[in-house]
């Protein structure tokens, strides 16, 4: 008998409080039979012990006893022999075989559960990618809005530059008109009032009147001109100030848009990475525990096969013991091949581990700048990235 039978006899069905054999004083009269019963009893009681002890010695004696009995059944009353056979057969078919079949379906379902576990990992990944996908769809809109904002900022900046250029020339004009007003705005030198040679008093006064009228007119005109250009300059200045404020306001709102864009891209990159690490953790955990479980199941499966074959062998010997040609039938039992096809465990194939997806353009990188900030006008420059992934 196979030594592996020990494990099922230890682990399975034997009632712990002694065997259920019919107590039969007749059995004690036959030493071989008594020894068989005692072996079974000891094996059964082993189950109560630490579990570490092997029942192999008892099983070997069980097998030896059975074989010896098979050779010597003529000495045992046939009725007694049939009683023992029927007891053991009943035990084998009612308890030991069903236990093996139950345990086979238990280990089979342990393996089958892993299909679900691996599928769960794929689902974790799928859900994560779907979330990323909807986040991803929002980003092109943010990019386009930001770009339009910077273009508007650039146009306002152009207008402001033109305003400042005009302001510059207004300043020059104003400086020159007011300078010429200042030059004229003075009391003439005494020599202006001297009479010409031989000039009559009347001619002199007439000439002086003309000179002073001209001078006065010039003083007034120049002063008005200066006031006019200064007034124009102030208007220009305030126009440029207003435009500068508009540029600032536009820039503030573009910076805000950029911040939103950077943050969204950052979140997307982060959530893709999170999905990836969750998936990898899920896979490695599932793989690790599947390997562990598969190893124990394989060992258990192989034991179950051996146990099944051993039970079939016992049944065969018992059958031989009550037959007519005992010795040749017992030898047949030794040569027989017992199928364990119904006790094969079907193992799962692990689905291949998917490669991780991550965002190529992470804010702060050259790739991001090249993709997201392409065609941003130079006079409306983007601001520093303030998103969390720019500080790692
Ligand atoms: C089994 O062994 C125990 C303890 O040695 C004993 O009390 C019991 O009677 C035995 N049972 C049989 C069926 O021999
Ligand atoms: C049959 O059993 C008896 C006692 O149990 C033993 O003395 C004898 O040798 C056995 N015969 C055979 C053929 O094994
Ligand atoms: C992902 O989204 C697609 C289409 O929106 C859907 O068919 C699929 O079931 C989703 N997958 C998961 C895992 O949620
Ligand atoms: C300046 O003079 C021009 C005509 O010479 C006139 O049209 C304009 O209104 C004046 N501007 C101011 C601010 O006085
Ligand atoms: C995501 O992972 C990639 C690749 O490991 C890395 O370059 C990137 O910085 C990560 N993103 C974030 C937001 O940490
Ligand atoms: C990308 O642009 C930002 C401005 O938002 C700048 O601070 C950063 O240095 C750029 N990165 C690279 C790699 O060019």
From TrEMBL:
Signal peptide span: 1-18
Domain of life: Eukaryota
Alphabetized UniProt keyword annotations: Signal
Protein name: Uncharacterized protein
């Amino acid at each position: 008998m196979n030594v592996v039978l020990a494990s099922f006899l230890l682990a399975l069905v034997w009632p712990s409080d002694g065997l259920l054999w019919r107590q039969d004083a007749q059995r004690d009269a036959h030493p071989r039979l008594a020894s068989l019963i005692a072996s079974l009893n000891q094996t059964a009681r082993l189950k109560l012990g630490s579990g570490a002890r092997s029942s192999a010695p008892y099983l070997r004696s069980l097998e030896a006893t059975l074989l010896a009995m098979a050779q010597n059944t003529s000495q045992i009353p046939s009725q007694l022999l049939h009683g023992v056979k029927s007891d053991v057969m009943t035990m084998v078919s009612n308890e030991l075989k069903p236990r093996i079949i139950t345990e086979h379906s238990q280990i089979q379902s342990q393996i089958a559960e892993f299909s679900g576990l691996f599928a769960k990992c794929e689902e974790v990944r799928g859900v994560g990618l779907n979330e990323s996908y909807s986040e991803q769809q929002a980003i092109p809109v943010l990019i386009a809005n930001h770009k339009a904002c910077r273009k508007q900022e650039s146009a306002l900046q152009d207008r402001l530059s033109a305003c400042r250029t005009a302001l510059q020339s207004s300043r020059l004009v104003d400086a020159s008109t007011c300078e010429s007003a200042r030059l004229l705005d003075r009391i003439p030198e005494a020599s202006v009032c001297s009479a010409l040679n031989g000039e009559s008093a009347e001619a002199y006064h007439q000439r002086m009147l003309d000179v002073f009228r001209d001078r006065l007119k010039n003083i007034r005109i120049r002063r008005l001109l200066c006031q006019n250009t200064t007034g124009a300059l102030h208007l220009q200045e305030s126009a440029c100030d207003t435009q500068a404020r508009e540029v600032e306001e536009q820039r503030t709102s573009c910076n805000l848009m950029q911040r939103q864009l950077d943050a969204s891209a950052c979140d997307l990159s982060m959530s893709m990475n999170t999905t990836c690490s969750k998936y990898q953790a899920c896979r490695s955990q599932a793989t690790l525990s599947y390997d562990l479980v598969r190893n124990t199941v394989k060992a258990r499966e192989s034991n179950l096969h051996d146990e099944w074959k051993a039970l079939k062998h016992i049944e065969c010997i018992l059958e031989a013991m009550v037959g007519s040609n005992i010795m040749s039938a017992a030898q047949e039992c030794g040569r027989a091949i017992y199928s364990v096809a119904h006790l094969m465990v079907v193992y799962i194939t692990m689905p291949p581990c998917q490669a991780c997806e991550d965002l190529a353009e992470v804010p702060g990188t050259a790739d991001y700048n090249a993709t997201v900030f392409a065609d941003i006008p130079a006079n409306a420059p983007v601001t520093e990235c303030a998103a969390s992934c720019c500080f790692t």
